[in-house]
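Bit of a strange request maybe. I'm writing a small parser for structure token strings and I need a real example to test against, not something I typed by hand. Could someone generate the tokens for this chain?
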Amino acid sequence: MEEQRIELLGTPIECGAGRRGCLMGPAALRTAGLGPALAALGHSVNDRGDVAPFAERDVAVEGNARAPGLIRAWTGAISEAGRGIDAGAVPVFMGGDHALAMGSINAMALRARDAGRPLHVLWLDAHSDYNTPLTSPSGNMHGMPVAALCGEPELSFVFEDTEAVVVPPARFHMFGIRSVDAEERRLIGERGVDVMDMRAIDETGVAPLIRPVLETVAEAGAMLHVSLDVDFLDPSIAPGVGTTVPGGATYREAHLVMEMLCDSGLVTSLDLVELNPFLDERGRSAELLVDLTASLFGRKIIDRPRGFRAA
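Reply from user aminoacidic:
Good idea to test on real output. This should exercise your parser:
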């Protein structure tokens, strides 16, 4: 893999989650050696430190949404920081709960628009995160970023402090989903979100499901943002998350996704989210995220010939 310029950006947001601890996520990833692991692969790595939220302002919301003013403040700050990264670099947003994606993906959508290209998102998560304040049972806004980015009107307040573009729902490719609320299920069906749940993975396998996504992105000449939630992984290998759901991706399934993404050469930005060191076991989850990220950026078991494709 050719040398890339990688920009690490800490986004220590936890107000979107139901349990405290995600604000320690960026520090845990640094402690687990994310920067040195990527540098060892021959990449140029720059750690830009942590984002701080804009000043919080009151916001009136119809429905159930916790800390909406603070989420708006974080979204504006993360979006601005992401847009400030040079277009030739690959931003890695180190979280922080999944509400950070409202800012990171918006920044990448603006970057794609400026480049005259579409943006597609590979959403690796146990949850679809397509709730709105009118559908959410908990009001936790880490369960709402996809709905916000797809332009659901109840969440328009999120982008009041920043320029924003809507990402069409069909450009979200959800992989590994296994926990969806009833109203979410209705919304993602009506909006046409591309969903590959764990049953599909069990029946078909990883590679036959990921290949068509990569082919779609390549044919569209699109940029590809990957949003990796710790709870995409089975809690037996990644316990450091506040929203564990049994039956997640195995160690090899997760690495295969990353290896295929690396081979594609399509990934232009990455989220690492929902790492909660307070709930982890001796850094297991943080170290696994570092290993997966290294696979995405070129760590291999052996070198395969160019154009290799397994039967």
